[in-house]
Amino acid sequence: MNDLQAILAGTVTRLFAAHVTKELLESAEKGQWPAALWQVVQESGLTLPQIPEAHGGSGGTWQDAYIVVSAAGRFAVPLPLAETVVGAWLLSQVNLDVPTGPLTVAPVHRADRLKLTRDGKQWRLTGTATGVPWGRASTHVVVAGDGGEPMIALVAGGGRVKADENLALEPRDTLVWNGTPVVAAAPAGHRLPADAVQLYGALVRSAQMAGGLEYLLSQTVRYVGERKQFGRPIGSFQAIQHQLALLAGHTAAAGIAAANAFRAVDKGAADFEIAVAKVRTGEAAGLGAGIAHQCHGAIGFTYEHSLHFVTRRLWAWRAEFGAESQWAAEIGRRVAKRGADTLWSSITRQ
Question: What are the pLDDT digits (tens) for 309-334?
Fold first, then answer.
C-alpha cells in the first residue's frame, strides 16, 4: 500500500465509522434507503475509485477499489457500492458515459439471458434477471445482453420489479424487461469476457467478504478479552485461543486471495485469480462466521448485538455471483485444459 492508498484507507474508515451506525443498519433492513449516506459516499469520490477521469471517476486502480469495497464489507455498508464499482467499470470499458447515482448489474445468474434488439436507432431490452442486488434502489442497471454479439447496455430503472431479499435483508430483486428502451448500448468487444458481470461481481464479493472477516476477527478478539468466566477473560483459555488462531488464519488467507485478485485485474486478465479469491473467501466466510458465533456464545445470535449484521451478509455473499462449488469447478476445468504436464508450473506461476 502506497501513501495515497494509506490516505484513502484512512478516509474510508473514518467515513464509514462515523456514518454507518447500528441505527442506520436497522433502518436499512426495514426498507429505508440511506440517502444521506449515499450522498456522502458519492461526494467523497468513493463510488468510482478505479474509473478513468474521462468517465467521471477518480482515475485510480483496482487496488484502490479493493480498499473501498473491503471497507464496505467490514462496516456492512447498506449500499450498492460494490455493484456501482463494477457497473461503472463495465460502462467505461465500452466507452459509455457513467451516470451519477447508485448502479447495479445484471444478470447475476448465468442461466438468466437478456436480449437486446434494435428498433431503428434505439436498442430495446427483453428478459428476466433474478436476484439482482439493490434492483429497486438503483437509478440505472448495467446489463450484459445478447444483441447478435455480446453487448453492455445501460437501462434507466429496473423495469418491472418483484421485490425480494437475501439473508441479510438486502434487496435481491427480480427485474423484468419487455422491450424496454435502453439509455445506451455498445458491443462488449474483446476487452470484456462473456461472463463479465458474474466474474467481476465475484471479484467485489470476495473483497466484501475479506473485509467482513476482518470485522469478525477484531470484534471477537475484543469480546473474548472483555468477557470473564471463572474470574478471568475467556480469551485466556486455550480452547478459545485455538479458535481465534483459526479465525485469524482464515481472515489472513481470504484477504491475501482477494487483494491478489484485484492486483491481477490491474495487470490484465485475472479469471483464475478471481475464481481462487471467491472460493477462498467463501470458505473462510462460512468457517469464520461459525467461529465468531461460538466465541460470542448466545449473545452473538441476538438481534441487539451487532455481530449478525456482518455474519448474515457473509452467509449471503458467499452464494452470490457463484458459490465456491461453481468457481472451484471453473478452476478445475482450467487446470485440466492446460494438461498434467503444466500443473506444477501453473500453480507456482500464479
Answer: 999 999 999 999 999 999 999 999 98
Please identify which residue in the block is written with the cell numbers 465475484.
202
What are the cell numbers at 247? 479465525
Q: Are 80 and 134 in contact (CB under 8 A)?
A: yes
Q: Which residues of 180-216 are buried (b: 16+ CB within 10 A; e: fewer)?
A: bebeebbebeeebeebbbbbbbbbbbbbbbbbbbbbb
Count of CB atoms within 10 A of residue 111's CB?
6
* Protein fold of 102-192: Butyryl-CoA Dehydrogenase, subunit A; domain 2 (2.40.110)
For residue 20, give Cα distances in angstroms to 34, 152, 315, 320.
10, 33, 20, 23
**79: exposed, middle or buried (C-beta count within 10 Å: 0-12, 13-18, 19+)?**
buried
* Annotation: CATH topology of 196-349: Butyryl-CoA Dehydrogenase, subunit A; domain 3 (1.20.140)
The predicted model scores a pTM of: 0.94
- Give the CATH architecture of domain 1-79: Orthogonal Bundle (1.10)
Q: Is 127 helix (H, G, I), strand (E, B) or coil?
A: strand
Instruction: Flag whether pLDDT at 301 surpasses 80.
Output: no
C-alpha to C-alpha distance for 201 and 296, rounded to whole angstroms: 31
Q: For residues 256 and 123, give the distance between their C-alpha atoms in angstroms, rounded to a whole number.
A: 42
Contact 106, 175 (CB under 8 A): yes
pLDDT tens across 125-146, in order? 999 999 999 999 999 999 999 9
- Are the C-beta atoms of 284 and 318 separated by less than 8 Å? no
pLDDT at residue 168 above 90?
yes
- Which amino acid is present at 275? A
pLDDT in tens, 13-68: 999 999 999 999 999 999 999 999 999 999 999 999 998 888 888 889 999 999 99
What is the C-alpha separation between 67 and 12, in angstroms, rounded? 8
- How many residues are there in the chain? 350
